[in-house]
Amino acid sequence: MRTIFSLVAALMAVVTATGAEHGRENTEWINARWYNANDNKLPRVLLIGDSICNGYHTNVRDELAGTAYVTMYATSKCVTDRSYLKELKYILEEYDYAVIHFNNGLHSLNTDPKEWEAGLRAALQLIREKGKGAKIIWASSTPLKKAELTQKARVLNAVALRVMQENNIPVDDLFSLMDPLDRERFWTDTYHYKDEAVKLQARQVASTIRTAMAAKTASAAEARAALKGAASETGPDGRIVTSTAGN
User: Fold this and answer.
1) pLDDT higher for 120 or 4?
2) Residue 175 has pLDDT above 50, yes or no
3) Are 198 and 63 in contact (CB under 8 A)?
4) CA 182-138-21 angle, 5° bins
5) Over 50: is that where the pLDDT of 27 sits?
6) Long-range Cβ contact pairs of 172-175 (< 8 A, separation 24 or more)
7) What pLDDT, on the 0 to 100 scale, is given for residue 1?
8) How far is CA 101 from the centre of its chain?
9) How far is CA 198 from CA 106, 226, 245, in A?
10) Strands (E), the chain
11) C-alpha of 70 from chain center
């Protein structure tokens, strides 16, 4: 607990020095999934992000089926939010992870870049301390339909790139993957993507993670078995649908 308190204190000191506490959106949200929650035969990877991660994570789960189990933590909170590190600490302590694929940015476009950098560094420190040797990959924030918002994403991506280079952390450049695409064809709204583009993101994320793990693609039988184990028929949510990857 001492670590999280010191991280929060350091972050809040920066926020206090640069202005008021980071303002929240009118509605803040969290979404987390632990697929194959009772399985431990394969390594587990953690996807951290926002609604973009929430969009591609099931496809990543299917791409990595039979190679790794997937945990996903998506939130609307900026890294400067007073609760972000507390939530992240909980996710990190739930399982051991082989790879942590990390992004935070699209809900931070109006955050002061210096405050955001301080929050990013605090989050990265926590991931390193609680990650138990996991390989960390930074995912750049994706471009937006509007040019002025895309420019804000570029600014934060440049800050993040400098921080990651200082810490020898590789970057999964989702921005460069998406930016050349036609905004009318591939975007559903200002922020989000149609299924074809989401699958492009998922394939790159899964490939980047697989490379970090030096792992091969699983056989069709291994993938089917893993996806069957990820499904659930209990609880009020009913059955969680999984694809039949490898068929």
Assistant:
1) 120
2) yes
3) no
4) 95
5) yes
6) 172/101, 172/137, 172/138, 172/139, 172/140, 172/204, 172/205, 172/208, 173/140, 174/52, 174/103, 174/139, 174/140, 174/141, 174/142, 174/201, 174/204, 174/205, 175/140, 175/141, 175/142, 175/143
7) 52
8) 6
9) 16, 22, 16
10) 30-34, 44-49, 69-75, 99-102, 135-139, 171-172
11) 11
Contact 35, 53 (CB under 8 A): no
In contact, 97 and 109? CB cutoff 8 Å: no
pLDDT for the residue numbered 120: 98
* Domains detected in the chain: 2-230 (3.40.50.1110)
**Adjacent-strand bridge partners of 193:** 187
Show the tokens assigned to 202.
């998922």
Strand order in the sheet with 171-172: 30-34, 69-75, 44-49, 99-102, 135-139, 171-172
Q: Report CA dihedral (73, 75, 77, 79) to the nearest 10 degrees.
A: 30
Q: What is the pLDDT of residues 51-72, one digit of tens each?
A: 999 999 999 999 999 999 999 9
Q: What does the block give as tokens for 246?
A: 């490898």
pLDDT over 70, % of the chain:
85
